[in-house]
Amino acid sequence: VGREPLKVMISGAPASGKGTQCELIVQKFGLVHISTGDLLRAEISTGTEIGNKAKEFMNAGRLVPDEIVTAMVTTRLSCEDAIEKGWLLDGYPRSFSQAQSLEKLKIRPAIYIVLDVPDEILIDRCIGRRLDPVTGKIYHLKNFPPETEEINARLIIRPDDTEEKVKSRLQIYNENAEAISSTYSNIMNKINGNRPKEEVFKEIQYLLLQVQEDRMKVTKSG
Ligand code: AP5
């Protein structure tokens, strides 16, 4: 009661498991999941102006221009549900200038989580990834096959999940990662993401509970 809601930022290379962990974090902590990739894919599928502009960049595995993404994210972060329940920001910031945009607006998370996974595993995860357009759930042909034949029949492949595009996305990620983490070095927690998803989640859950606890102490003593 009267506690400021939790604000979490999650980062990591393409297919490091951000979306998968976010599903679990939302279930447990009730935060509002704001994924720039999901927001952009929704703009594309409804054919908005933003979607039309973003499409060619995304399908080529390149970053969408800052002005499009930054406006979209800051608008979403200022919605009532995010302010009330707290947020889980996934896929933003993705460059130093995006991190600076948030700093200028004094939008800061309580914790910055980075999922660490070796490159060769990331490529395999992207190539095997499938999405359920009905529930938004993330599957993998080998690691997490769909539960029923009905789901299996409707699964879709992301256009940027070819080996060539994954390599380009990975390169862009590696070029930017250090500059972003320098902005959040005092709240950064790097986690080994190359483990079963439940194990990864256990560690994230521990960290988030710790952040919540620390903030209670601060509230009590101050
Ligand atoms: P975005 O949608 O953010 O893609 P991404 O960062 O490349 O991340 P992914 O969604 O590919 O992977 P993930 O880490 O969520 O992994 P997942 O859980 O699905 O962005 C897409 C594009 O949008 C960008 O390329 C860019 O063009 C544009 N964009 C977005 N944000 C932008 C920004 N801020 N600025 C500019 N442009 C922007 O898992 C992957 C697979 O692995 C799945 O099949 C899953 O089942 C499996 N898996 C997950 N965890 C495990 C595990 N522990 N063990 C085994 N398999 C696992």
From TrEMBL:
Compartments it resides in: Plastid, Chloroplast
Name the source's superkingdom: Eukaryota
Which family is this sequence assigned to? Answer: Belongs to the adenylate kinase family.
Describe, as the record does, how this protein assembles with itself and its partners: Monomer.
Q: What is this protein called?
A: adenylate kinase
From what organism does this protein derive? Morella rubra
